[in-house]
């Protein structure tokens, strides 16, 4: 018997509307916070493509985010704004290219080895930026003037303007979200889902699994690069910390917190993580203790992540709820 | 003589000092069903794993249409037309029956770069999937999630997935295991229907089924070929009876 199709309410237009109207009511601080959440959402969605949809638990995803952020600083002229349509694709390309090279090695390993090898590669890249003068060493480097888009003498878009920055990030968040949704229903997306479900069978059905995983890995690296681009532009400086394993861990926690294998979960996870980080660090400098407690609680009570909360509540109220959402 | 499709020449597989397969040679022809019998541990599954590429051989050759494919990876062999099913059900449990088969068919026309097209929008793949589902007798369960199928139905799905890849060689590892009598009968009928267009290797414990469908039978014991020939020859073979059939087949005399 085919299961009756469950009607799902679509909250996306509402979320989009709130995000679009928010700057009209929010102050500068909150606009910046929401922009940060949107950037982290792009980052977390790119990791979810690997962790949630392909079954590749990468613990080095900050590497692609970080090198892209550095590429913005390194490619921008010192005292003039860079061309947005040059540095943005360049940052995405950098993230994807580094993912390609790293992927050639790490995708030959599986399970726990994959986790460790992705971590090892990310740490290698971290120390390249930390210990060499390439990106200013451990102090990092400044992006004095942020990129802008101009035709002739007219400046169309200027990332130095917080409002414009906010809406450009929002636009690219939508682009990244729609792109991933479209990708996931394409033949490639279905093949990645097959790899997550049963890699061995995919191989025996004739899929060159390694190439498919590499395609997923490069795509995720490119989108992480997009997030890295905006992160560099938001703060106007980069430090090796954005490449560190803390950053890889944080984004992994966002995905787990929100719920793996649902792009919406990545967004909810990024939102919850950034907001809690903000709240807890205002309370105490030991905010990671509180954050840890929240994550342990969520994982134990809601294995499907925060995005499964409505179904879980419904299940509890009606009875016979499905623990896994 | 029918067209020779796949053959093993002096194929061996060692695990440490133990031979799982030793100097095995056999031929598979188009239009013939080649059954492999043998007690547990005779090396039947290893034989299939060697032919499908899941295991590399330690020695010997595997020839597919005259070409040595011993070094080919499993996915390359599959794309060349060598399909296999597994003894322990090996499906995508969270997908529907249809998606299991559609994905299998997709391996023949990957279109991996068509990222802006829907996977389910390609009619050729959907048709191939539906044909395979129909052939395997699962049409009524097309939209069921694979994990919710009964064991017998999952065995049928296992076969349907192989068929969806339109292979020319079928390596079937105990397709009847765990099936009820009715399902077994329809599977035997399916095997008969598939034989004219395929070269089939059937590893099976069900004697009645094997003797009903096989054109050639190879009996293996401790990793080696004991005897190979038409069913009548195997039935009358003294060596086979002593080694294997003698235990539980009194009706053979």
From TrEMBL, chain A:
The keyword Transmembrane helix applies. It is found in: Cell membrane. Its main location: membrane. Keywords: Cell membrane, Membrane, Transmembrane, Transmembrane helix. It is a multi-pass membrane protein. The keyword Transferase does not apply. This is Branched-chain amino acid ABC transporter permease. It comes from Aromatoleum evansii (Azoarcus evansii).
Automatic annotation (TrEMBL), chain B:
InterPro entries: AAA+_ATPase, ABC_AA/LPS_Transport, ABC_transporter-like_ATP-bd, BCA_ABC_TP_C, P-loop_NTPase. It comes from the Bacteria. Keywords: ATP-binding, Cell membrane, Membrane, Nucleotide-binding, Transport. Transmembrane segments: none annotated. This is ABC transporter ATP-binding protein. It holds the Pfam family BCA_ABC_TP_C. One of its GO terms (molecular function) is ATP binding. Residues 6-247 form the ABC transporter domain.
